[in-house]
Amino acid sequence: MGYDEPGGADVFRAETLAVPECGGDQVLIRVAYAGVNRPDVIQRKGHYPPPPGASHIPGLEISGEVVAAGENVPREMIGQSVCALVTGGGYAEYALAHARHCLTVPRGMSLKEAAAIPETLFTVWHNVFERGWAKSGDTLLVHGGTSGIGTMATMLAKAFDLAVITTAGSDEKCAASKELGADLAINYKTQDFVEEVKDFTEGKGVAVVLDMVSGDYVARNLSCLATEGRHVTIAVLGGAKAEINMVQVMSNRLTLTGSTLRARSDNFKALLADEISGNAWPLFEDGQIRPVMDETFDLADVTKAHQRMEAGEHIGKIVLKVAGG
């Protein structure tokens, strides 16, 4: 599913392309489901072009069956059900993935659920636990608590014994966030999240902020951080520029960092997948964590899926059922 020019959700059109051929380290996956993520929307609008060499087709996470493999890939991967992080191409019947960016779908997990995991899992693991150095006993503040990222961050953080504070835009979403394990869910439309964080932490602040808003949220986030706290930015939905007090940063020894994942090297993402396989994936294999699912749309209805994403009504992950899925 592609488009001729960037634009609104109605620009998508079906297109027929040759089935892609595997490179030496790649597998070809017959796609069952593809996850829908905010970066897909940003790409469709023309603001997030694929990195060099990546497919122009949107879609950063998929699930399905491996039907072919490159010369450097173990033959036993053919026929396996996997989910994978991809740099593009997910909104299609067949997609390429680096073999080491795949995770085997656990017994008892549906392919629909599996497609809702890789993008958020890789993003949260890297930014909360690697860049944010989160550890047992810390308190984490997550904005967008009922988004795909927010739900994943909440569940992973609770599994590793962190306290979690989330923000959301309605009482209904706050209730859903608390059901997932959030210790405090703040309705940012009716409450001052800075004051609520201070009250909850008895003035100490949080160890880590996972920020998807940026803009004028950054200064407020810094006021939520404890001494030596870490501010990790993964999106700039509220604007790319922020004005902050550097004396506050210095006096409280704060760390400001952030990342994007899509353009990172294959080797980096392979190493990240290895760490996830050893530390986080067992939580999915034993059923302790399952993705929060919102609506499923047929691939032909991708416009409706993007409209739901942009409306902000979803709780958890939106996925596309691909032909044959």
Automatic annotation (TrEMBL):
GO terms for molecular function: NADPH binding; oxidoreductase activity, acting on NAD(P)H. Keywords: NADP, Oxidoreductase. It holds the Pfam family ADH_zinc_N. Residues 7-320 form the Enoyl reductase (ER) domain. It comes from the Bacteria. SMART domains: PKS_ER. NCBIfam families: quinone_pig3. This is NAD(P)H-quinone oxidoreductase. It comes from Qipengyuania atrilutea. The lineage of its organism: Bacteria, Pseudomonadati, Pseudomonadota, Alphaproteobacteria, Sphingomonadales.
